[in-house]
User: What shape does this take?
Amino acid sequence: MKVKLSSAERVLFPDDGITKGDLFDYYGSATNAIVPHLKDRPFTMKRWREGLSGGSFFQKQAPKGIPDWIPTRVFRTWPRGGKGESRLVDFPLVNSRDALLWMVQMHCIDMNAWYSRVDKPDRPDWVLFDLDPPEEDSAFALCVRVAHYVHGALEDLGLESYVKTSGADGIHVIVPIARRSTYDETYEFAELLSRKLEAEHPGEVTTEWLKKKRSGVLVDHRQNGHGKTIASVYSVRPKPGAPVSTPLGWDELTEQVQPRDFSMQVALGRIDEHGDLFEPVLRGKQMLGPALKALRG
Assistant: This one.
């Protein structure tokens, strides 16, 4: 092992007593499941130097002193909202167990990477439907119901999809695709399908961005864009209990499921039992064009 862990006893989750060492052990055990989903994707470091209580900051540029055995690649980025000067950023790539563990040493709790890979940075591997439930009791059960609406609509268009808990409060539905479509096309597809579901399920599905105007579960198509990142499958999330973004079979996603059910120990047990349920996402061969054409009418 090339990574030496320091401050292993530092508590990152103060309400749970979960330490940096606990996180290091989890990612060491989950390596074979998570690294294939990070490999060759520009990686954004979200660092929690003092744990959850101290807040976090994002770091796209590979830091000074990054080990020479962690590869980096330069890409141009634009400020949030697209306004202002672009800049060249040298992104780290998490292509190995040691690179993953080094990110834990740098106080990364969740692992955030692009939807596309370095050889075709303008061609995403998937379309994402990011489901964000309202802040009320039983909201996650509604989120589950909406996830099944998304799944059914995609099936009607001839597309397979895969689901995981976001690890925070919502659900991610991912449609793996052949790397031929552009980000503009995946954005348009997600927007058209989300608005169709909003019209079919008023009060349950919304595309309204402002929370105070929102009624139901936000199906957020805006997360499909060049340079956007997603917390990878098997990422620990910076929430009480250190829940993990965990893939599920569609038959497992019932209204009894709660995102906090999936601790690090539970996630590792599921990997042992089921293998990587998200492995098909790595082999996307579905053509988006016909489904997009159908939605355009």
The helical segments are 20-38, 97-105, 139-156, 183-200, 264-274, 289-296. The two ends are 55 Å apart (CA to CA).
